[in-house]
Amino acid sequence: MLKRRGSAVWNGTGAEGSGTISTFSGALKDQPYSTSMRFQSEDGRAGTNPEELIAAAHAACFNMALSFQLTGAGFPPEELSTQAVLTMESEGVHWTITAVRLELRGKVPDISAEQFQELALAAKAGCPVSKVLNAEITLDAQLAS
């Protein structure tokens, strides 16, 4: 069994407070977050938020799962580049993650487009982060030319 740790501290009210997010590894250390950073920053660059971290984790998990799938099938990848686009929708005052779109571009020598799609779909289904999300997860997988 593996355990991974992250922590968050919040000070103040939900609307006006702020906090910090940290990971045990130190990759994030006291990274600020707040309601305005999460819901009002138009470009999303004012600070991080939980959904951005979920999207990055999903992209990374999917790439690793796909690399194992491809290598196991005899097609070790040169590069897998995935952007995860997470969609949230409000239901009154409550927000829900409703979808994640994985946009994959891969450089995989000697693989057919059909094999690539099949293995990418298997990786999407088997990725631990995909399994934990209660959202529609779609995939746009393309081989680089």
DSSP strand count: 6
Structural Rg:
18 Å
Q: Order of SSEs, N→C?
A: EEEHHEEHHE
The major beta sheet can be summarized as: 3 strands, antiparallel
**Strand residues, percent:** 35-45%
- Spatial separation of the terminal alpha carbons: 40 Å
Structure description:
With 145 residues, this protein is α+β, with helices and mostly antiparallel strands. The chain folds into 2 domains: 6-40, no CATH class; 50-143, K homology (KH) domain (GMP Synthetase, Chain A, domain 3), CATH 3.30.300. The protein is built from 4 helices and 6 strands, in the order βββααββααβ. The strands form 2 sheets. It has a 3-stranded antiparallel β-sheet. Strand 4 and strand 5 form a beta hairpin. The longest helix is centred in the middle third of the chain and has 23 residues, at 50-72. The radius of gyration is 18 Å and the shape is elongated. The termini are far apart.
Question: Summarize this, please?
Answer:
By secondary structure, the chain is of the alpha+beta class.
Descriptive key words:
three-stranded antiparallel sheet; GMP Synthetase, Chain A, domain 3; 6 strands; alpha+beta; 145 residues
Question: What's the SSE blueprint?
Answer:
Elements: E1 6-11, E2 18-23, E3 31-34, H1 35-40, H2 50-72, E4 79-91, E5 94-107, H3 113-126, H4 128-132, E6 136-143
